[in-house]
Amino acid sequence: MLQVSHAAKSFGANRAVDDVSLTIRAGEIVGLVGENGAGKTTLMRIVAGELAADAGTIEFEGRIGFVHQHFMLVNDFTIAENLALATRTSPRNAEAIVASTGIALGNVGRRAGDLSVGEKAKLELIKAIAREPSLLILDEPTSVLTPYESEELFAVMRTLAAKGTAIVFITHKIREVTAVATRVVVMRRGSVVADSPSMSAEEIADAMVERRTGFSRSGRAEARPTSRGEILAIVGVAGNGQRELAEQFLHAYPRSRIGFIPEDRTHDGIVAEMSIAENIALTRENWRGAIRRVPALIDLYSIKAQSAKQPAGSLSGGNQQKVILARELDGEPERIVASEPTRGLDLESTRFVRDQLREAAARGAHVILITSDLDEAFELADGIQVIYRGVLSDRMTPAVASERVAKLMAGLQ
Amino acid sequence: MKRIAYGIAAAAISIALLAAIGALFGHRDLFPILIGGSVGSPFALEGTLLKSVPLLLTGLAVVIAFRAGVWNIGGEGQFIAGSLAAFLAARYGIAAALIASILAGALWASIASLLRIWRNAPEVLTTILLNFVAIHLLGYCVNGPLQEPSRMYPQTDAAAVALPLLGTSDLHAGIVLALVAAFASWWLMYRTKEGLRLRAIGYNPNAARTAGVNVNAQIARALAFSGAAAGLAGGIELLGVTHRLFERFAAGYGYSGIAVALLAQLHPLATIASAVFFGALVTGAGELQRAANISSAVATFGQAIVILVLIMFGSMRARD
How many domains are there within chain B? Predict the structure, then answer.
């Protein structure tokens, strides 16, 4: 029914989807799993026609329903009005539409904005089902549902599949895949690495994360005296408490004694309208001294800028990150917390940022690297901890972590 | 440079529109009267400059607050608080009166800070509401405890001191103070750590907080600086021009400061030119009333057009 042949899509240097071929038949429930950034959502957006593929062909007949991770509801409309908007019928039909989907949602006269997140998710699902799609794509639908609501959703999925609807269920929760999917497709770094009707939870977890046996930085790391500084990586699927953890570190020390690289560069890092120099001076007590040092820092951190007075917002993402690094590392703080420090950067900037973190550790700083990029964690870290639902695992050496990290990230241990 | 061009264009368009509408209603001489009445003679120019002084200070008050992302719409109330304090402190000398006006303006604005910190009340509302409190407080004072002993009018006696005049003109030393305030504001905002942090919270409070700026404290200080400028405006207006307090003493200077600041594109030094422009508009409008019997409300009309044109430029820039 759906035939994807050699689809590819790149964002800059990042190959989000890399030569993927996939066939989906009517009545299948396909669990599409992979780490963050593996290319799951990008692939499905190509299938749904929301993104144009750089290469490859998509063959599909029928209607696609796509339930996004983010709600697309009119908050000031009632449930009935939202359904009417999506199905182009009268709000009076709303009750019947809801009943036909088999999902319980209560009074349809309520404002969408007043619903709980679980109810909003249900409404999105009803919207999609009401249009009778032959292929239904669900992007992380259970992330806001209670376990009971998830079971309800799975029942609906099974009913739809029995009627011949093909369903693609994007998730990183392995347990749900084994519970409901009739076929599992695992993506990693833009490619399909496993595709099978029956996979155990362990097999799925192993496929999601590259095996890292033979990776041995740990010996050297353990030989290093801890007082000389080290890099501790905290890894996990995004949204498991990383942000809150970083905030705790930020407030636990005086600002001048901690180097803090925020996860969201444009939101929490850079003041786009102010100059490079002003951005760097912002954390400093000695304002004038900091401004005088900026040209030297621009050289030292190879920031590609015309002058220190250039607005920081006019720099590329990589150079903005270098401005933050220059600000946070130049004072040689004893502690550094770096959240997703290379997200969205090109190869050269990524290498630069990682080298800086290594150098900081080498001169004695304690670096905490919070990342969802496992390659980054294994490349840099002397020790690894996994964060899952706000709880940190024991500290592991990279060698031990390479065996256990996938299961810990999926909450299987 | 581009921003200055936007400001000048907005001012020119508003004057052109005023003249065009005047012509439409048969007043072909509207534009010459406006010019003649504001800058056409030494007397007119004096009037313009006198009006510019309070506008410059209330304009600076808005520049400082808006740069910090703090919506201080309370210039009017802070202006009144400053004038009341200056009147009461006048018996201790001119310096005491001016300092009192600065402190009172800052304190009046700080009520909004306290409400924000305690109850998370948005300053855009509290500062406006505090305007009404100040207006009625002034009304009570000039009808009650501070009313002139003869009880003839709802106004006070003349203040115990006055600002010295410059030469033989009607211009008072407040002009110098206002100019000093403009340069001091520029220095504060662009040459100090305080100013750096103040602008940072205005542009991106999240990044400022992550960089270690205490955003609430910074907002409170920005509001205090802002209120201080508006309070000084009230003190100078009392000690230099009216010498007495009366019910309609503030005359909208606090609100006009918003137009002054926006026309200056929130730059402290450009605020000088912007204040003189609006001072000329108000003075010229007074002449229109006298010479052509056109309501002086055209000054308000001009202000509104300037802001509308600037908003239009702003949305044009956003679309680029």
Answer: 1
Sheet strands side by side (includes A366-371): A258-261, A335-339, A366-371, A230-235, A383-388, A391-392
CB nearest to B207's CB, from A270, A284, A285: A270
Q: How many residues does this entry show for chain A?
A: 413
Q: Read off the pLDDT of residues A98-109 as tens digits, 9 standing for 90 and up.
A: 988 888 888 999
Residues of A in contact with B206 (CB under 8 A): 267-268
The total number of residues written for chain B in this structure: 320
Cα B74–B75–B78 angle (5° rounding)? 90
Sorted by sequence, the CB contacts under 8 Å of residue A390 that are 6+ apart come out as A240, A241, A244
ipTM above 0.90, yes or no: no
A54 and A201 together in one domain: yes
pLDDT tens-place string over residues A175-186: 888 889 999 999
Contacts of B193 in chain A (CB under 8 A): 281, 284-285, 287
Whether residues A60 and A32 share a domain: the answer is yes
pLDDT band of B319, cuts 50, 70, 90: low
- HSE, CB side, 13 Å, CA atoms: give it for residue A366: 8
Per-residue burial over A262-284, b = 16 or more CB atoms within 10 Å of its CB, e = otherwise:
bbebbebbbbbbbbbbbbbbbbb
pLDDT digits (tens, 9 = 90+) for A27-41: 999 999 887 668 888
Residue B7 forms part of a structural domain: no
- For residue A271, give the nearest of B192, B193, B200 by CB distance: B200
pLDDT of the residue at A6: 92
- Which amino acid, residue B40? G
Query: For position A198, which CATH number holds?
Result: 3.40.50.300
Better-scored residue on pLDDT, A373 or B83: B83
Name which of A255, A271, A284 is nearest B203 (Cβ-Cβ): A271
- Chain B residues with CB under 8 Å of A292 CB are none
Tokens at residue A183, please?
Answer: 């076929």
A287·B210 Cβ contact <8 A: no
Range of the domain at B225: 55-279
SS3 state of residue A385? strand
β-strand partners of A31: A169, A184
